[in-house]
Amino acid sequence: MPPPPLGRGRGRKRASLPFDAAFDDDELVAARASLSQGRWTAVRALLVATGDDWDRRGHRVTVLAQEPATLAWARDWRLAEPESADASVLLACATVHRALNGKERPEPAREACQAAAALAPADPTPWLGLLILERSHGTEEDVVRLFDEVRHRYPDHHHAHHLMVARLAERRAAAGQDPLHEVYDFANWAAEQAPADSPLAILPVVAHAERYRVLAAAGSESGDPAASGHWVGRRARQVMKAAFDWWLEWERDDHPRRHVDLNFLAHAKFCEGRGAEAAALFHRIGPHATREPWSYPDRDPDKAFRAARDSALGTA
To answer: What pLDDT band is residue 10 in, cutting at 50, 70 and 90?
Structure first.
């Protein structure tokens, strides 16, 4: 169902979008609420039920790790169950989040992730935690090595591929609009080697948006993505069409991070000027907006998302 029309009364202030990374995972939302009240057993049950659905496990752990109370409760859980791989990985990712917020040095987060990896050698999630950390703090060699560790355990890991694309897009910022830039090669390779129903088919669209972020920050693209021309070249249109066609045929309404892909695709279609296609995507997104790529390069994501949605749905 499409989102309800926004109120038009004078002086009425629009509520800000929640940008909740849990999206429509009701079980995750319930476990997160329990954890905030100190009941970590609900999280234990959630992660046991998640099993080796690695994309879902990574999604749930990283969302839980962002909560302010998680670090303390994860420590309590690990003290109660020192051999629990789930407790260890949640503690590790919460420590990573704290380091990214400048409240912890990176080294304790690295050590926590390594400890979690030792408890669960087949689990890519501790390596995802390290990749999230080194995306901001590490060298390019660190990022590539950690991506390989994740991919060795689960070749189609959604979150890891997005992190890799974001980092690769930052290479050679001064090169300008280079259609042969390595981020495009990587995204195309990843999409081609993935199974036919894999949401990695959307990765070339993500690469296009991430490269726009870098170029706009460098001053070689307009700060208004829809006015930049970045989405209307021949190659760009081919990429957007292929991704939209994949979505029409294979829409993965069961993937835990599908709203990330939907937002990148809706953003691309809106910037391309394909209003009807963007509208179909906004209907699917509903209330589950994401900060990226609507914030690119330095925009208010709430305002950018609403303006694009209103325009595409004819409610502007």
So the answer is: very low
280: tokens are 């179909």
Q: Could you tell me how far CA 12 lies from the centroid of its own chain?
A: 32
Q: Tell me: the pLDDT tens digits for 157-209? A: 999 999 999 999 999 887 777 777 999 999 999 999 999 999 999 999 999 99
What string of DSSP letters covers 189-246?
HHHHHS-TT-GGGGHHHHHHHHHHHHHHHTTSS-SSGGGSSTT-SHHHHHHHHHHHHH
Distance CA 129, CA 133 (A): 6
How open is the CA angle 111-117-120, to the nearest 5 degrees? Answer: 150
Distance of CA 24 to the CA centre of its chain: 15
Give the N- to C-terminal CA distance of the chain in Å, as an integer. 19
> From CA 96, how far away is CA 103, in angstroms rounded?
10
CB-neighbour burial class of residue 283 (10 A; exposed 0-12, middle 13-18, buried 19+) = middle
How far is the C-alpha of 141 from the C-alpha of 144, rounded, in Å?
A: 5
How does DSSP assign 262-290, residue by residue?
A: HHHHHHHHHHHT-HHHHHHHHHHHTT---
Contact 286, 277 (CB under 8 A): no
Q: Do you find a cis peptide bond into 124, omega within 30 degrees of 0?
A: no
Q: Which residues contact 35 (CB under 8 A, 6 or more apart)?
A: 42, 43, 64, 67, 69, 70, 73
- Taking the complete model, does pTM exceed 0.90, yes or no? yes
Structure tokens belonging to residue 30: 């319930």
Both structure tokens of 274? 């394909």
Residue matched to tokens 């989405």: 231
* Nearest residue to 270 via CA among 238, 293, 242: 293
Neighbours of 13 (CB within 10 A): 7
Cis ω before 297 (30° cut-off from 0): yes
Return the amino acid letter for 204.
P
Contact 126, 113 (CB under 8 A): yes
* Whole-angstrom distance, CA of residue 32 vs CA of residue 60: 9
Alpha carbon 219 to chain centroid, angstroms:
25
